[in-house]
Amino acid sequence: MSSSATPLTRQWTTWGPIVAGVGLGLGWGRDLAGLAVIAIAACLIAAVLAAVHHAEVIAHRIGEPYGSLVLAVAVTVIEVGLIVTLMAGGGDKTSTYARDTVFAAVMITCNGIVGLSLLVGALRNRVAVFNAEGSGGALATVCTLAAMTLVLPTFTTSHPGPEFSSAQLAFAAVASLCLYGVFVAVQTVRHRDYFLPVPRPGADGKESEDDHADPPTSRQMWISLGLLMVALVAVVGLAKLVSPTIEDGVESAGLPKAVVGVVIALMVLLPETLAAVRAARRDRMQTSMNLAYGSAIASIGLTIPSIALASIWLSGPLVLGLGPLHMVLLVLTAVVSALTVVPGRATLLQGGVHLSIFAAFVFLSFSP
């Protein structure tokens, strides 16, 4: 870890989140244009890179799968706050914002992050190896949560349109929260070994070690935890600051409004993406899978209950049901992901297949 080579207080990863937080404070509530947007974008990039660094420091201290869980939950909690903030007072025009953001998060994590990680891992070792038991259980949880919250509203009849009735929304929220709790318990306690990186035999026949550096001290871990929170708040807040510029660009180009949710989700999930790719480069493919599927589970399992609770005072409808196009992409993702995960081994082909589905999702978001 670089934290052991250089004092933590002298690193750019310490000042990056602070500068980004200052930029967020100066830009909040203002109309940004020109150089201000460029400065905010630079702060956003610094905050993303700093978040990845501090998440790795924490993961090195507490070990897997707790490290990936910390990053996934932290980003999702702040993302939920962003969704509720944008939906408050938005009325009908924000009725699909939660659905679009959650579905974009599922497609980004299950196809974008997984595909990119498999590609990097396969390029490094020809075959990317991970734990089929842990990844399979996580994938099953993602598919169940997605079907209950994004597919069923399209077919229920108690409420007109692709919406849940109040009772159905309450059931979906409680079921999502319970299923998320069970997954976390299995991942961290009962079957923790299913979510640990698979050791690969080295050239001498002995198990290779993933990281030879000494773990950071408790003080360094707590500092990194605080800076991680600052960085993640800055990432989501800065994404919100640049969203009006994105909305103006989308509107002037005549693109669907859902594109805004996709772009913001891409920015918010950048820390997980970079962390997963870096883990794959270090031959820790299971960590990459934990980050990808864990982020998808947290995105649904925490967002839907929060939105259900917030809907008590939010004005306007809450549309959760997917259309036919997105349902096809979701089913294709579930089938391909199952075929990828079951063997516990993947090649460049699987990575390319997932990335092609992700590319189709992005393209069809711009041109439905």
Automatic annotation (TrEMBL):
Its main location: membrane. The keyword Signal does not apply. The chain crosses the membrane at residues 35-54, 66-90, 102-123, 135-155, 167-186, 221-239, 259-279, 291-314, 320-341, 348-366. GO terms for cellular component: plasma membrane. Residues 35-188, 224-366 form the Sodium/calcium exchanger membrane region domain. Keywords: Membrane, Transmembrane, Transmembrane helix. InterPro entries: Alkaline_pH_Ca-Antiporter (IPR052946), NaCa_Exmemb (IPR004837). It is a multi-pass membrane protein. GO terms for molecular function: potassium:proton antiporter activity; sodium:proton antiporter activity. It is found in: Membrane. The keyword Transmembrane applies. PANTHER family: SODIUM-POTASSIUM/PROTON ANTIPORTER CHAA, SODIUM-POTASSIUM_PROTON ANTIPORTER CHAA. This is Ionic transporter y4hA. It comes from Streptomyces showdoensis.
